[in-house]
Amino acid sequence: MPRLFGLNLVAVIVAAIAFYLVGFAWYGAIFSEAWMAAEGLNAADAEEMSPVYMLLGFVITLMQVIGIGLVLKWKGVSDIGGAVMAAITLWFFFALPFAAYAYVYLPAHNTTLLLIDGSHLLVGWIVSAIVLSLIK
């Protein structure tokens, strides 16, 4: 099986796709209206978004999945429960603080955006960790 940084390449790709689909559901269906309102966007703005942004978004997702996979590997996590706990811990100490920067430093202090973005990362990281723990 091909490997990337010692990780199963198929697992990394499947986990990245799963995480990306979480984002699609989060921002495209579940929280679409609330997110656009909080960002000050309208439907026309969303339709004008370049496909390049979607590609770059996938690259960012892929980078996160590789990072999660490396931590799981280094910690020797092999079961779903351990993977979920590792993802939650990583999210709490890394993803959530990064997401909170915009909340803290932007004048709007937009709680809606923090909740939507933070919860997207939490669910995405958990889903990624589960996929990585299932596909060795």
Question: What would your notes on this structure say?
Answer:
This protein is mostly helical and 136 residues long. It has one domain. It is 81% helix and 3% strand. The chain has 6 helices and 2 strands; from the N terminus they run E-E-H-H-H-H-H-H. The chain has a two-stranded antiparallel sheet. Helix 1 (9-30) packs across helix 4, helix 1 (9-30) packs antiparallel against helix 6 (111-134) and helix 5 runs antiparallel to helix 6. It is globular. The termini are close together. The model has no long low-confidence stretch (mean pLDDT 94).
Number of domains: 1
Which sequence of SSEs, written as H and E, runs from N to C?
EEHHHHHH
Mean pLDDT score, rounded? 94
Helix content: over 70%
The structure class reads: mainly alpha
Question: How many extended strands?
Answer: 2
Strand line-up across the major sheet: 1-2
The unreliable regions are: none
End-to-end C-alpha gap: 9 Å
Q: Helix count, per DSSP?
A: 6
Our Rg estimate from Cα atoms comes to 16 Å
Largest sheet composition: 2 strands, antiparallel
Morphology: globular
- Tell me the quaternary state: single chain
β-strand percent reads under 5%
